[in-house]
Amino acid sequence: MLMIAHIRRPDVRVSPALIAGTLMLTAWAGIEQTACAQAPSFANVPYAIEHPSQALDVWIPAAPAGPKPVVVWIHGGGWSAGDKSSATGGNKVTDLLNRGFVVVSINYRLSQDAIFPAQIHDCKGAIRFLRARAPQFQIDSRRIGVWGSSAGGHLVALLGTSAGVEDAEGTVGGNILQSSRVNAVADFFGPADFFNVDGWHTECIPVTPEAQLLGACLGAIQDNQNNPTAPWPQKVALAHLAGPVTHASNDDPPFHIAHGTADTTVWPEHSQLLHAALVAQGVDSALRLVPGAGHGLPLSENTAAIEFFDRVLEPLPPCPGDFNRDGTIDFFDYDTFVTAFEVGLPRADFNRDTAIDFFDYDEFVVAFEQGC
To answer: How far apart are CA 213 and CA 119, in angstroms?
Structure first.
């Protein structure tokens, strides 16, 4: 039975050294050992050229041809380990393909190669790349979901809440005319707030994954929030930038958050704080607290996440340019869209990125000109 009510943090504490070792595993607690034998349709595709890690794999369902929703997997590993091949664990790829989703799994620069915000810059660069190459990969750019666990959960949550935050966007891979917004987020036990989970990973020795990510000990950053002496103002700002809770707003996409109540690596308070921040903004957010689960979840939680993507990334009308749905594409459709666009009606969010802007206008014009 899933718990929704507030829970107490587990009394068990794990040393930072053990935490770092745990976070560097790419398959948590031996739960996701089943591998998908299907090779990617496109493997090791570079989405940028700054670092070898900036690459992704794409799996495309066999049929039918044409634009499809996509789920992008982002691996965990304490931001210092892990690989895009973890997408094949737990039958995620197979089950998503069977539901008609394109599946993408990305690598990103690890914290030993570059500190934050390099990791979120890479993730956003990958999303923009996928939108720019959508026809090649048979992706419907209006239906992009992201899914990750642990450090990957942190990054997908940040993708969901930080759209339009300039310091989080970056310019990795170019494609700057493309949006990095996503349309659905499944966050499995990701860190979400670097200031308000008391006592979590604040030790400075040994070095924690968060210290390696931010370039300074998290406890020291918290203790120096009001210190005007360099480097503390910059480090405090960086830690706030890294927190998905920081950016929660009413235009964020739907969230599906899952966390084990016995997780001693990333404490459940992280997911509780994120869920509360999203709900306070009126965002569609569901929090699944899994009794007794540690830093890893049973395969049934994968099924729940895929059902979430099925619900949120539902099929679009077969003829998107027929905006008034009268069976004919004509200037009545154009006038109806422009009217909705000018007054900000929800229907005018044509690309489903939760913002009504000229990306919607441009994509409607393309659909209108293509006809049915």
So the answer is: 9
Fold held by 16-312: Rossmann fold (3.40.50)
Backbone angles phi, psi at 285, to 5 degrees: -135, 135
Instruction: Report the side by side order of strands in the sheet with 139-149.
Output: 42-46, 55-59, 102-106, 68-74, 139-149, 184-188, 255-260, 285-290
Task: Dig out the tokens for 268 from the structure.
Answer: 């459940």
pLDDT tens per residue across span 304-345: 999 999 999 976 566 778 887 777 888 888 999 999 899 888
Strand, helix or coil at 287?
strand
CA distance 72 to 130: 10
Alpha-carbon span 92 to 34, nearest angstrom: 9
CA 66 from chain center: how many Å? 24
Alpha helices in the chain (DSSP H): 16-23, 92-98, 118-132, 134-137, 151-161, 166-169, 209-214, 218-223, 232-242, 269-280, 299-312, 331-343, 358-370
Q: How far is CA 205 from CA 211, 232, 356, in A?
A: 10, 19, 47
